Amino acid sequence: MAITDYFRISGFVADMKSRNLSLYGQWIGITSIFLSLALGISNLFHVNIVFVFGIIAIVQAPILALVEIPFLLKIFRIPDSIITFVQSLDTNFMRVIFYAIMAIIQWLSLTCKATSLIALAIMFTIAMFAYAGAMLLGQEFHKSNVVATVQVGETPAEAQIRNVL
């Protein structure tokens, strides 16, 4: 195991020991990225209107990735309006609203047919409750130590090289 892997694992363990619900919400959100993509693809093959919710789940995956992994905002060329939107979600209250909207969209898929998208709706709801708990307990909004964060003014070395090329 490389030394960087050790720091990532120990960073994850530190996040779990912190008892900060916003960190738990972030990790649930990161898990939801992969779940959203997988379940979205698997629900594309339904004959009825459920495939629309599958497409929505696929679209939700990169949105979640940008929200929960802010380093991606610097790797890819993204319009400033999207960066501003993602930065406006950097409070517990705004994340509660964000995940509530995401959850409601997937709960609505049950009106057509009960599918595996219910798991995604449950994950979004759990993330919403994690951020709501952090807000109600007065915990500060924190981002994980494992997920690389870059301030808006900073540019990673790889992005600087790409800009020169």
Low-confidence regions: 148-153
Number of domains: 1
Output the helix-strand order.
HHHHHHHH
Number of strands: 0
Global mean pLDDT? 81
Sheet with most strands = none
Report how far the terminal alpha carbons are from each other. 34 Å
Determine the strand fraction and express it as a percent band.
under 5%
Structure description:
The protein is an all-alpha fold and 165 residues long. The chain has one domain. It is 68% helix and 0% strand. The protein has 8 helices and no strands. The longest helix is centred in the first third of the chain and has 22 residues, at 21-42. This is Golgi apparatus membrane protein TVP18. Golgi membrane protein involved in vesicular trafficking. It is found in: Golgi apparatus membrane.
What descriptive keywords fit this protein?
single chain, 165 residues, 8 helices, 0% strand, golgi apparatus, Golgi apparatus membrane protein TVP18, membrane, TVP18/Ca-channel_flower
Provide a concise account of the structure shown.
By secondary structure, the protein is mainly α. Helices cover 68% and strands 0% of the residues. The protein is built from eight helices and no strands.
